[in-house]
């Protein structure tokens, strides 16, 4: 039986939606399982849980070691975000508007941490800070995280700069503003979505980073992923599922904020 074009289109649309739904389910199921395990009554990571409880959340929030690790993760992520944006903004301007030899090579150099295996970067950074005596410090954590977060920030800002019409900035200069005033009052507001996106990417990269953090950690300074890693080697307590849920929850919250900011910018535009 021959199908009409409308029937074929409906079938193709249904197949596309079904495939997309299955892929989404495949990706989300492990996350859902972890969240459910954090409410399970068993002292082991057993699925399905025999019952439901908030006991493990109480243990997590009452344990000073877990809370200290969570606070350290948040502090490192915030400092990494600030540094990544502060370094990425002038770098993006130089790569987009600069006219100097080796610009393309420099762009490849800045994006190299996205290509090089993370463990290689971790070993190299660890060897450097070990020689300088900075391992186990907040400075080492932030610098190492900025290395892997900076490419995401630079790319986001570069994309916004390429979409921005520089003639608008030139018009502001012609109307009497200095070049610096035009950049701050015209260009920065226009590329704000790229800056926000770069900041959010930097925060997320730092928030759940474990390979670099394991190399930089010390007995007195550990991030939440490092604490989870060390605890997993000793015990499969559901408190780890609680920590995982909090990591996921904050990541989702950041993405929701990013979507809200993007929608607000689209409406205002």
Keywords:
mainly alpha, 77% helix
CATH topological fold name: MetI-like fold
**Uncertain segments of ≥5 residues (pLDDT<50)?**
none
Q: What's the number of helices?
A: 12
CATH superfamily: MetI-like
Kindly report how far apart the N and C termini lie. Answer: 50 Å
Q: What structural class is derived from the secondary structure elements?
A: mainly alpha
Principal-axes geometry comes out as globular
Structural domain tally:
1
Radius of gyration: 23 Å
| Secondary-structure element pattern, one letter each | HHHHHHHHHHHH
- Note the main sheet: none
CATH architecture: Orthogonal Bundle
Please identify the top-level CATH class: Mainly Alpha
How is this structure best described in words?
The chain contains twelve helices and no strands. It has a single domain (55-268), classed as MetI-like fold, CATH 1.10.3720.10. The protein has 269 residues and is mainly alpha-helical. This is ABC transporter permease. It is found in: Cell inner membrane; Cell membrane. The chain crosses the membrane at residues 21-46, 66-95, 107-129, 135-158, 195-216, 236-261.
Write the layout of secondary structure elements.
Elements: H1 5-37, H2 55-62, H3 64-97, H4 103-110, H5 118-132, H6 138-163, H7 166-174, H8 179-190, H9 192-207, H10 211-216, H11 224-232, H12 239-268
Helix pairs in contact: 1-12, 3-6, 3-9, 3-11, 6-9, 7-8, 9-12, 11-12
In a nutshell, what does this entry contain?
77% of the residues lie in helices and 0% in strands. It has helices spanning 5-37, 55-62, 64-97, 103-110, 118-132, 138-163, 166-174, 179-190, 192-207, 211-216, 224-232, 239-268. 28% of the residues are buried.
């Amino acid at each position: 039986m021959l199908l009409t074009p409308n029937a074929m289109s409906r079938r193709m649309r249904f197949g596309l939606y079904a495939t997309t739904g299955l892929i989404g389910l495949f990706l989300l199921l492990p996350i859902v399982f972890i969240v459910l395990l954090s409410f399970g009554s068993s002292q082991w990571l057993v699925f399905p849980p025999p019952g439901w409880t908030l006991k493990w959340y109480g243990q997590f929030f009452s344990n000073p070691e877990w809370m200290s690790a969570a606070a350290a993760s948040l502090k490192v992520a915030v400092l990494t975000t600030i540094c990544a944006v502060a370094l990425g903004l002038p770098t993006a301007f130089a790569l987009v508007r600069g006219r100097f030899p080796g610009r393309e090579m420099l762009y490849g150099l800045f994006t190299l941490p996205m290509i090089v295996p993370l463990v290689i970067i971790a070993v190299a950074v660890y060897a450097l800070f070990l020689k300088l005596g900075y391992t186990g410090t907040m400075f080492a954590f932030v610098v190492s995280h900025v290395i892997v977060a900076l490419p995401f920030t630079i790319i986001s800002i570069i994309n916004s700069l390429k979409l921005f019409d520089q003639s608008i900035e030139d018009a502001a200069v012609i109307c009497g503003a200095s070049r610096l005033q035009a950049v701050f009052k015209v260009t920065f507001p226009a590329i704000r979505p790229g800056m926000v996106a770069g900041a959010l990417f930097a925060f997320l990269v730092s928030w759940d980073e474990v390979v670099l953090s394991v190399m930089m950690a010390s007995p007195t300074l550990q991030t939440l992923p490092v604490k989870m890693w060390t605890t997993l080697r000793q015990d499969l307590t559901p408190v780890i599922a609680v920590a995982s849920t909090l990591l996921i929850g904050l990541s989702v919250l950041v993405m929701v904020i990013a979507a809200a900011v993007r929608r607000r910018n689209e409406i205002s535009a």
